Amino acid sequence: MAGLTKNKSSVAAAWVAVVLAILGALMLYPIGAPALNCTFVIVKICMVSGLLIYILSSNQGAGFNLWLVASIAAVVMTAIKWGSSVSPGVWEIILYLGSMVVDLGMPALVHHLSGHKG
What predicted TM-score, i.e. pTM, was given to this entire model? Predict the structure, then answer.
């Protein structure tokens, strides 16, 4: 991704995203059927791997792209879990919506903080 530049702010936000991705995985697992559970774990591993590549590697574009795609997949997985819930309570709905906002908002924040040009 041309023009994506790491700086202290974007790296700090990425570390926060690592923590939030792990916490989200712990709060939302299991999704349901075994195949969905496996997919969910793979998506979360890809999210954290993409973040670590972004933070620790000179190839931050590849890490960011992996994280972004995995984050979009995580939103789909959360929607599947929400859709399979029988009359979810208020706190469950807050958890699902919060997870989706974080999964889409953190990549947008890091992208903004990284000073993307173009």
Answer: 0.91
